[in-house]
Structure formats: C-alpha cells, structure tokens
Amino acid sequence: MESSSCDQNGGKKIIRFTSEMDLHLLRQVLFDRPFEKSGAGWKRVADSLRCIEQFSTLEARRVRERTNLLIEQFKRTQNIQQAKSGEEEELTEKDHLLLEIIGIKESIENEEMGEKSQKKKKDEVEQRKRAVEIRAAAMESRKRKQSEDAAGPSSSSSEDVVPSSKKKKPNDLLLELVIKRQVEKREERLAELEIRRQELALEREKFEAASAERNAFLLLLHKFSEK
C-alpha cells in the first residue's frame, strides 16, 4: 500500500495515494461525474477534495490520471480473476464504486458518439435538401424567363408595364429563396437545441439526486465498516 505522506519536489508536494484516499477520490468522482469534454468536472473533483488534508495540493490532472489508472487496474484484475477461477469474486466497496464509474463513463461516451453520428446524418440530409431547393428554384426561374421571352413585348398600355429597373432578376429571386430557407432552418435548429438543453438539464438533476442518495449510503456503509 502506498504511503500517505507527501514528498517535497521543487517546492511542490507529491501526493502518494493510499487505499483510503482512493476511496475518497472514487466517491467524489462518482458524485461529480467529471467526464464532459471541457474537463471542468475534474477541477470540481479536485476542488472538493482539497478540503481534506491529504489532498491539499491535488490538481485536476492528477485526479483524472489516478481515476483512469484505477479503472484500468480494475479491468485487468477482473479479467485475470475470471480467467483463473471462472467466476466473479466478492466485490469490495472500491470495486462497486469503480463499476458504477465505468458504467457512467461508458454511457456518456456512447451518448456523445451517438449525438455526433446523428448530427452528421442530419447535416447531410439538410445539405441534400438545400441542393434540391436551389436546383428547383433555378429551374423555375429559367422556365419563367423562357416563357417571358416566348410571349414577346406586351400589347398592354404603357401604364401597365412595370419599369425594367424595378423587376427583380432571377438571381435575386433565387438568393432571397435560399436566404429565407436558411433562416427558417436556423430557427428550427435553435428551437431543437433549446429543447435538448432542457432535457439534459432535467436528466442531470435526476442523476445528481440519485448520486447524492447513493453517496450518502456509501458513506454510511463506510463509517459502519470502520466501527
């Protein structure tokens, strides 16, 4: 087991994790779920743990590295044990924490991959639709021009003739159509994003409530086991 003391190195203390410190770390990681792309979650974990004396110099990078190391060690150990015995051994509190953390991490990663794939497919569909709309508008403009050319000069009085300077050119009509369609699509997309944001906020509130209950139970269980 690693020593809980801290060595001096260039004015900085190097944290050497013990089994007890690993438990503190994993409980906080499970509570904060710091797996978003921005990396801000690891800082939240480090900030929360620094109130404990052993973690006074803990940094976000060290939190992430230690958590990933524990996850990899756990996966390797489980594979070796199952290969030797053919059955799962009794799990400790640390094992249970790691199992939950691994499940959450993989769930978030899968969700992010699914969102990327869905966005890519949606963008491709939108691009094809825009291309079809532009072609249709161009064909309509061409047909209109051909009809006007075939009809020749109008026989109506000069009062009914619209000055050519006020007529919109086919390219202008096409540009207006494309811009209008893009604005509509942008508004639809913003509305969808807002709905999705609200859904994610609700899901996060539910998860945090469940995590708080689970953490409270684990802390109670740990205190009971220490007695």
Overview of this structure, please?
By secondary structure, the chain is mostly helical. The chain is built from 5 helices and 2 strands; from the N terminus they run ββααααα. A two-stranded antiparallel sheet has the order 1-2. Strand 1 (6-9) and strand 2 (12-15) form a beta hairpin. Helix 1 (19-32) packs across helix 2 (40-49). It is elongated.
> Distance N terminus to C terminus?
21 Å
Q: Quote the average pLDDT.
A: 77
Task: Output the radius of gyration.
Answer: 32 Å
Q: How would you classify the helix and strand content by structural class?
A: mainly alpha
List the strand order in the largest sheet.
Answer: 1-2
Short description:
The protein has 227 residues and is mainly α. It contains five helices and two strands.
Topology readout:
Elements: E1 6-9, E2 12-15, H1 19-32, H2 40-49, H3 60-85, H4 93-151, H5 170-226
Helix pairs in contact: 1-2, 1-3, 1-4, 1-5, 2-3, 4-5
Feature tags:
227 residues, mainly alpha, two-stranded antiparallel sheet, 5 helices, elongated, disordered N terminus
